[in-house]
Amino acid sequence: MTPKVERLVNLTVALLEARVPLTLAELKRRTGYYASGDPASARRMFERDKDELRRLGVPVETRPVPHSDEQGYLVPRGRYELPDVDLTGEEVAALALAVRLTGTQGTPLALAKLAARAPDPADLATRPTTRVELRADPVDAVADAVVQRVPVRFTYRRADGSEATRTVDPYGVVQRRAAWYLVARDHDRDAVRAFRLDRMRDVPVAVGDVGSYDPPDDLDIADAVSGPQDPGVEVELAVQPRASWALAIRGGQDTGERTPDGRAIWTLPGLHPVRDRSFLLGLGPDVEVRAPDTLRQAVISALDAVAAGADAEVAR
Question: CA-CA distance, 33 to 15, in Å (whole number)?
Answer without folding.
Answer: 13
